[in-house]
Design goal:
Elements lengths: L1 H19 L50 E6 L14 H10 L4 E3 L5 E3 L2 E8 L5 E8 L13 H12 L11 E6 L4 E6 L6 H5 L9 H4 L5 H10 L7 E7 L3 E6 L14 E6 L3 H9 L5 E2 L7 H5 L4 E16 L9 H10 L2 H9 L3 E3 L21 H11 L7 E6 L2 H15 L4 E6 L2 H10 L4 E7 L3 H9 L15 H12 L3 H18 L2 E14 L21
Parallel strand pairs: 1-10, 1-11, 14-15, 14-16
Antiparallel strand pairs: 2-3, 4-5, 5-7, 6-7, 8-9, 9-10, 11-17, 12-16, 12-17, 13-17
Helix pairs in contact: 1-12, 9-11, 10-12, 14-15, 15-16
């Protein structure tokens, strides 16, 4: 009987979602495990253009450029909240930052940190005999977009700027101090050996901006405004114009320092199209060339279109229903565990992702060094009711608002609403644009939201999502547990991979028992583009390399 009730409930949710979308058509089983810095990747390279060979070039104009062969038109669901490097921690902003800026290091296609602006580096021992002094030398003659040449001063000023930013401070915590050696060489001191520094330096928050810009304003708000207006990096593309809510335009940086990775296509037009089916229509009609976030509902029709190439790449993105652990009764572990056990994650994957994802059971991602999937509660309505009985309160008094910033999140929330009703909890959905959503959730002004975190290795994930010092930033459950903090910091200082794995697993075990939020799924990165666009590629972290594309 329960099976029939569940089926009827799922069908009702599907009908409700389809009705809400008004009939519009609108990341993984085994994601890649990043290796240690300087070691070979532990898994194979992700597939280019999906699971099948790329289509042959087509003579159909719909398979070619929307404007001309000097331009590619990219469309995305979410508009970046900022063009600055350190003023946000949003995936939508990371895409843009990778066009306009560079870091000292970058992650390659297998998610391993590799030197970018740095020409060479060594690690020296400190007075304790520990490997904690990182001596790095920049490439000579790296030019910013304004023609000025990058020096050590720009590096040190950028790191200091990042350390003062609440949005990305978890990516600077490994740095104790910096020191200038000469105009191209500098030292970074870490608190003992660091397993995380090179990953941290690959994050957009630590990308390099001119020191003279950072010195122009002492007021953080005015500096942020300046950096959003005068976007000056050393990246492969220069910022041209931002018409908010519509599009951002870029043009190639002709003096880009890395000749082998210089842009092949001159212009990029970055369009904002929030609704999934509208992005699909725009691609098939020839109005755009590349969709970053392809709605899963649109995949079958895109795969059937000979003028379109679809890319499906296993993702390391972990998605959840975030619960504010500071707000009663969500500060009670029994309420959180009841909600976790009451939500059928398989139904969420079916409805929200059209089946293009896998259920997430653990509080941390699978597919990374340190993953641990044991000791968690699976979907069990009877168990959920027992947790509610242990709590002892009245479920009708619980007020849960689930903030959603896009269609996929809203579809997941529809399933969750139906599931939670089974244990007496009424919930609702609130829609917000991405910038507002990020601001509200960072400040803790919410009860719940559908969200996620994309990181390329477990240390960065744990620091960003659960370290107590990142409350009011990326720790949005507002979890504050000294024992957990200790495990996370210990992992970042444990260079031996085998030992670090044990520490990371211990942290996940702790989190699975604490249940600070409700894991939902790991999805696939789904992108689609004109069939004649060459050299496309997506990493498991969702990054792509626009400067490599060509018609």
């Amino acid at each position: 009987m329960k099976k029939h009730v569940r089926l009827i409930t799922l069908l009702l949710v599907l009908l409700l979602v389809l009705s809400a979308l008004s009939g519009c058509a609108q990341k993984p089983a085994e994601p890649a495990k990043p290796a240690d810095p300087g070691t070979p990747a532990e898994t194979g390279t992700p597939a280019e253009s999906g699971d099948t060979p790329a289509p042959e070039p087509s003579d159909d104009p719909l398979a070619g450029p929307a404007i001309d062969k000097d331009t590619v038109v990219i469309c995305t669901a979410d508009e970046t909240p900022s063009l600055t490097t350190a003023g946000h921690n949003a995936v939508a902003g990371d895409y843009v930052n990778k066009l306009t800026h560079n870091g000292l290091f970058r992650l390659d296609k297998e998610l391993n940190p590799t030197p970018d602006l740095v020409a060479e580096y060594t690690v020296e021992k400190d007075e304790k005999g520990e490997d904690s002094i990182w001596v790095m030398t920049l490439h000579e003659g790296v030019k910013f977009h304004d023609g000025s040449v990058m020096t050590t001063d720009d590096v040190l000023a950028s790191i200091e700027h990042a350390q003062n930013s609440p949005d990305i401070r978890s990516y600077t915590q490994s740095i104790v101090k910096t020191e200038k050696v000469d105009d191209l060489t500098f030292k970074i001191y870490t608190d003992g050996p660091s397993a995380s520094l090179l990953y941290d330096l690959s994050h957009h928050g630590n990308y390099i901006v001119p020191a003279r810009q950072l010195a122009q304003e002492t007021d953080p708000a005015k500096l942020d405004q300046l950096l959003n207006t005068e976007v000056i990096g050393a990246g492969p593309y220069k910022f041209v114009e931002w018409r908010k809510g519509e599009q951002i335009t870029f043009t190639a940086h002709e003096d880009y320092f890395d000749a082998e990775r210089a842009p092949k296509i001159k212009n990029i037009v970055w369009k904002i199209i929030p609704e999934g089916s509208s992005r699909t229509i725009a691609l098939r009609a020839g109005d755009v060339d590349y969709i970053i976030e392809t709605d899963s509902i649109s995949i079958p029709e895109l795969e059937a279109d000979p003028n379109v190439a679809v890319m499906k790449v296993e993702s390391v993105s972990h998605n959840w229903l975030t619960i504010n652990n500071e707000v009663p009764p969500f500060d009670d572990i029994n309420v959180r565990k009841a909600m976790n056990a009451a939500i059928n994650k398989e139904d969420v994957v079916t409805v929200a992702l059209n089946g293009t994802g896998v259920v997430a059971m653990s509080q941390t991602p699978t597919g990374m060094l340190g993953e641990y999937t044991g000791e968690y509660d699976a979907y069990d309505l009877d168990l959920a009711k027992k947790y509610m009985e242990t709590w002892g309160g009245d479920p009708s008094t619980i007020k849960l608002e689930m903030i959603c910033s896009n269609d996929t999140k809203a579809r997941a929330a529809e399933v969750i609403m139906a599931n939670l009703k089974e244990i007496g909890i009424e919930s609702s959905i609130v829609r917000m644009d991405l910038a507002t959503y990020l601001s509200v959730t960072a400040e803790g002004d919410f009860t719940g939201f559908i969200g996620g975190y994309t990181s390329n290795e477990m240390m960065s994930f744990l620091k960003g999502v659960y370290l107590s010092s990142n409350i009011n930033s990326s720790n949005k459950t507002r979890t504050s547990e000294p024992e957990l903090d200790e495990l996370i910091i210990k992992a970042t200082k444990t260079v031996d991979q085998g030992e670090r794995e044990k520490v990371l697993q211990a942290a996940t075990k702790f989190l699975n028992e604490l249940c600070p939020q409700i894991p939902l799924y790991q999805d696939y990165t789904l992108s689609a583009h004109k069939a004649n666009l060459k050299n496309t590629f997506i990493t498991p972290g969702g990054s792509f390399f626009a400067q490599e594309w060509e018609w």
